[in-house]
Amino acid sequence: LLDPMDDSPFLRRQKSVPMRRSRTSRRVRVALFVIAVLLPVGFTGYGLATFALTSPLFVLTLSEDVVVTGNHFVSREDVLGALGIPLTGNLMRGTNIFRMSLDVERHGVETLPWVQTASVTRILPHGLLVHITERAPVAYVNVGGRVSLVDDDGMLLDKPENGSFDFPVLYGLDNVTSLDNRRARMALYLDFMRELGAEAPRTGWMISEVYLTDGEDLKALLINGQQTVQVHFGQKDFLQRFHNFLVLLPEIQKSNGKLDSV
Hints:
Largest sheet: 7 strands, mixed
Distance between the termini: 122 Å
Order of helices and strands: HEEHEHEEEEEEHHEEEH
Structural class: alpha/beta
Mean pLDDT: 83
């Protein structure tokens, strides 16, 4: 046995001595990081920003520096007008492209009736790219005796000079002031055309006019040769009702002669 006073053969764990970190060294490291990294980056960024905003290299001075894509019916002149850029010649003072708000310019282009959406991006060193998605007309519409085109949102569109369309003429939208109600009437028309747009011509009938005055009863003027009939289709099952019309028409004509409406 070992005497308690003798040294133990096992090493005892020495009590750890807390190390006190030097606050001064940490502050020095932070200061060196700021001096060596942040300050150069900040000065470089400031210099680049100042150069971009003041250099004549980035000044838009010619209308030819604006590239317009995606437009078929919207003229380049209308787009430049929405951007506030003269059609020809030099801009009087020019505009730095980095001082232009692209969102503001985009909203300006989207105010054009034929433009559904637009995007505006910078082309270095001093140009703009305007990409347009145009509205797609789905019918002619008679509003107040004036015939225009209309898209599925109910947006009225002037007929372009370079466009040719074969659509029925819609009536009844001039009495619909609410945009939601107009869209609902247009949705009714689109459902009708999806079901009958191809089927009616195959049977020899042409859809000439569509009346949306009553949101619960779509009426269509159908033409087949010398025969013209206005048919009430309601608000659903348009294809089935059209087939019913074709089946019943000969029997109805036998007992009624010339028909005006069914």
